[in-house]
Structures are given as C-alpha cells and as structure tokens.
Automatic annotation (TrEMBL):
This is Sulfurtransferase. Gene3D superfamilies: 3.30.1420.10, DsrC-like protein, C-terminal domain (1.10.10.370). SUPFAM superfamilies: DsrC, the gamma subunit of dissimilatory sulfite reductase. GO terms for biological process: tRNA wobble position uridine thiolation. It comes from Marinomonas ushuaiensis DSM 15871. The lineage of its organism: Bacteria, Pseudomonadati, Pseudomonadota, Gammaproteobacteria, Oceanospirillales. It is found in: Cytoplasm. It comes from the Bacteria. Its EC number is 2.8.1.-. GO terms for molecular function: sulfur carrier activity; transferase activity.
Length: 106
C-alpha cells in the first residue's frame, strides 16, 4: 500500500471513493476479519459495478438480486453471502469495496 493515509469515517468506510485499490481492500478486509478469496473478489467487483451504475450501495435484497442475475442462482442467495461476509453482507462488502454504507442498513 502507498504511504499516504486514507480517510475513513467513524465506522471505517472510505471518505474518498477514489482512494480505493485492491490493496486497500485487503487491509479493510483484515480489519473486519475477512480473508479475501476469489469468491469475495467476485462480490466486491460486482458491488463496485452496481455502485457505478446506480450510485448507491445495495442493501441485502438488491444485492442478492444483482448477484443472482450476474453470478447465478447458487451464489445469489443470502446464505451464500453470509458465509463470505458474516453479520451484514451488504455493510461488510461495501466497506471492503470502498463504497458508502448502504442507506437502510443499521
């Protein structure tokens, strides 16, 4: 990672979305005890595409729908997303993807 510090909000979300890099994502994932695998990256890049298209971080239902559409039925399930991003998949994945916290996630 570069030597400059990256600004995060009080909950650990990036303040400047342009600061995001895959290397930073690895650090953000470690901070929330997520070990990144190809399956994780698949969701992270899908989330970033979703954000580019809709300018919003999806909550659980739209996230599941987007994953289902792009990656298939077996991955487009909340159970699958929970195994990758325990607790709140939309919040954890958005944080690692360098995106804002989904609006309706507490």
């Amino acid at each position: 990672m570069t030597n400059h510090t990256v600004a995060l909000d009080g909950e650990g979300y990036l303040l400047n979305l342009q600061d995001w890099t895959p290397e930073l994502a690895e650090h953000l994932a470690k901070d929330v005890d997520v070990e990144m695998s190809d399956a994780h990256w698949e969701i992270i890049y899908l989330l970033r595409e979703f954000y580019q298209e809709f300018e919003v971080s999806p909550a659980m239902r739209p996230l599941v729908k987007a994953v289902n559409k792009k990656l298939g039925v077996e991955k487009g399930r909340s159970i699958y997303l929970m195994t990758l991003f325990p607790g709140s998949p939309p919040k954890l994945a958005a944080k690692i993807a360098g995106l804002p916290k989904p609006a309706n996630c507490l």
